């Protein structure tokens, strides 16, 4: 049997201002801010994590906000669209909600499913699809009740400079199953029930450019450290030059760039986001790794303050 990932662990992107990002994802989309910390490689920058109530793998989108940063260009070597999944029968509700916030929407169909496509305030491309699959969210905030709430990732649309080679990595390293074609899209499926349907755009895209509104990397799930090392070995034998294992506090990470240019990460499910604070208090305060704790006051002084709040449209 092929060694197969469950699907997406998390997706990480660059955005502009921190408060508008929190307003968009926590207030308008109704996700929970499950962790606020810093970029461990650049402590002057926040690293914010949004997901379901528990911060489960398959629900987490993370951001590095950098006010005034240059806008990126979406293209090859990137995640083209980040796909969210909502309960069946709620797509019209979500369309009305997005319109209430003056978010521009395009409806499209792919693999027989209806999608709402829309940008965030930094230009990151998002889409929503309704499916029965996947556990329901129990999180409610602002104008988003739990029975309408985003469950997590439905998957992603990948833009590659070499789709044939990207497809090989999806199958041979991650073990995703090639399930069907629809025009210029090839669909792959993982073993899980969230973040498990990956659509590869078979168009050869010109290289995109990094910056605000761009996905930095997509992370795939490993059950544990042992499972992660199996994926690392598969990547290495495929000539993809994976990094050593990196401790990210809430998961261990291995990175490699597949031959179509997309930065992939293999991230472990454990230990999760509640190991350094309780599930009830996750996201309420800035959490720092031990080696930065002595610089807490200095780090906080350099970060732009923000709050999770209910917006005027929901009052």
Keywords:
315 residues, eight-stranded mixed sheet, 16 strands
Care to describe what's here?
By secondary structure, this protein is α+β, with helices and mostly antiparallel strands. The chain has one domain (8-314): 2,3-Dihydroxybiphenyl 1,2-Dioxygenase, domain 1 (Roll). The protein is 16% helix and 35% strand. It is built from five helices and 16 strands. It has helices spanning 18-28, 91-100, 163-172, 225-237, 296-301, and strands at residues 8-15, 32-39, 42-51, 60-65, 78-86, 106-110, 113-119, 125-130, 152-159, 177-182, 185-189, 197-201, 214-222, 246-247, 251-257, 263-271. It has an eight-stranded mixed β-sheet with strand order 2-3-4-1-13-16-15-14. An eight-stranded mixed β-sheet has the order 6-7-8-5-9-12-11-10, covered by helices on one side. The longest helix is centred in the C-terminal third of the chain and has 13 residues, at 225-237. It starts with 7 loop residues before the first strand and ends in a 14-residue tail after the last helix. The model has no long low-confidence stretch (mean pLDDT 97).
């Amino acid at each position: 049997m092929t060694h197969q990932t469950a699907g997406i662990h998390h997706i990480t992107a660059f955005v502009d201002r921190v408060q508008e990002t929190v307003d968009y994802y926590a207030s308008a989309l109704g996700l929970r801010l499950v962790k606020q910390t810093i970029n461990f490689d650049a402590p002057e920058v926040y690293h914010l994590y949004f997901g379901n109530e528990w911060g489960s793998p398959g629900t987490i989108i993370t951001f590095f906000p950098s006010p005034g940063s240059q806008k990126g260009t979406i293209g090859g070597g990137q995640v083209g669209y980040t796909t969210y999944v909502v309960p069946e029968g709620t797509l019209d509700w979500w369309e009305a909600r997005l319109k209430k916030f003056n978010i521009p929407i395009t409806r499209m169909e792919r693999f027989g499913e209806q999608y709402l496509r829309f940008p965030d305030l930094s230009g990151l491309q998002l889409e929503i699809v309704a499916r029965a699959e996947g556990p329901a969210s129990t999180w409610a905030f602002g104008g988003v009740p739990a029975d309408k709430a985003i469950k997590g990732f439905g998957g992603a649309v990948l833009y590659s400079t070499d789709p044939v080679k990207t497809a090989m990595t999806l199958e041979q390293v991650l073990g995703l199953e090639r399930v069907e074609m629809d025009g210029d899209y090839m669909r792959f499926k993982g073993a899980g029930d969230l973040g498990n349907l990956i659509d590869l755009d078979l168009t050869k895209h010109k290289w995109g450019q990094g910056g605000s509104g761009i996905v930095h990397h997509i992370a795939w799930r490993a059950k544990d450290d042992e499972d992660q090392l199996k994926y690392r070995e598969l990547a290495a034998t495929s000539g993809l030059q994976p990094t050593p294992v990196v401790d990210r506090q809430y998961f261990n990470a291995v990175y490699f760039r597949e031959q179509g240019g997309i930065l992939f990460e293999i991230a472990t499910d454990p230990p999760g986001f509640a190991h350094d604070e309780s599930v009830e208090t996750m996201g309420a305060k800035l959490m720092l790794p031990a080696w930065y704790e002595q610089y807490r006051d200095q780090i906080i002084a350099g970060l732009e303050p923000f709050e999770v709040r209910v917006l005027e449209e929901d009052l």
